[in-house]
Amino acid sequence: MPNIVVIGAGVSGLTSAYLLSKEPRNNVAVVAKHMPGDHDIEYASPWAGANYMPMSTKSASRWERRTWPHLKRLATNVPEAGIHLQKSRLYRRTADLERLRSGGTSALNNVFAENPWYRDLVDDYRDLRADELPPGIASGCEFGSVCINPALYLPWLVGQCRANGVTFHREALSHVLNIRSLGPSYKADIIVNATGLSAAKLGGVMDKTMFPIRGQTVLVRNVAPQMICVSGTDDGDDHACYMMTRATGGGTILGGTMQNGNWESQPDLNIANCIMQRAVSIAPELTKSNGAEDLDIIRHGVGLRPGREAGVRLEKEEIDGIWVVHNYGHAGWGYQGSYGCAEEVVALVNEIQVRAKL
């Protein structure tokens, strides 16, 4: 029975541990500095919206394609997972059309493509009529998506792991191989590195291509008419306008920012005001008076998405005689690619085990 240690308890680590633990022969442990229930700037998963809004190119879409049916099944059949079905609307501003049509590699160009690859994947995709568009919006689309409540979903993943025998251990690691919390006689046969932004300072990895993408949000009690995302704002290229109502009373997330290289952990109240003003401008239904002053604030949030210059790292590597499977660098699409990436982690672990038997 191989001992597999997953480092990291964000959505990528927990989903990897969950799928690995479905194989009875695997003895799986999760070791992490932060666990569900923590709210720390470097622990990205609790701060996410989170939703399904494909961000990849068609050629790199396999992880998001594989994740969609899992999230839809949970939303439909497993209410305790904290995921619900929700209509999503994407608005392309007239001011952004030239940029969106430029053929750039930005994730936003993929999200707001006028003929996106995901139109045949998601439910009930349709282009919006002219009379459905707010002022300043050139075009848009609507489709069935899901919104995830991380406060429920992450503990649900822990519960599924525990039911499969996974053990959980708190430890802030200095090196990917230096796992002390499992005892001096414990031997890890395979390690899964799902440390997100911490991969930049984890000994044995030290991935200096990692960088934070600061996301500031406002969580309110008001209910959004639907999930909405707008192609840009007048407040700067590192600002964004989006909203989604989380399942089971989780509130409505208003966003946000995408500030590359910014480590600031405290909310900027001027940015928060911009976020709220943008939200009520694009969706007046949020408040009875159509004013941001009537938004009922639960809290302000700041999280650091784990950006990586070359995108996600999903591969195996031998470090000092121990095989390590890396699964990090997901930027802003960790949830919507979680199952697809975890399935690839399982495949890589299986390759290592087959190789070990030869």
UniProtKB/TrEMBL annotation:
Protein name from the UniProt record: D-amino acid oxidase-like protein
Positions bound to D-dopa: 242, 305, 332
Superkingdom of source: Eukaryota
Residue span, FAD dependent oxidoreductase domain: 4-347
PROSITE patterns (alphabetical): DAO
Family that this chain belongs to: Belongs to the DAMOX/DASOX family.
Stretches assigned to coiled coil: none
Entry cofactors: FAD
GO BP annotation list: D-amino acid catabolic process
Residue positions binding FAD: 176, 195
Record keyword Oxidoreductase present: yes
Keywords from the named record: FAD, Flavoprotein, Oxidoreductase
Gene Ontology MF term list: D-amino-acid oxidase activity; FAD binding
UniProt keyword annotation of Flavoprotein present: yes
Signal peptide segment: none
One GO location term (cellular component): cytoplasm
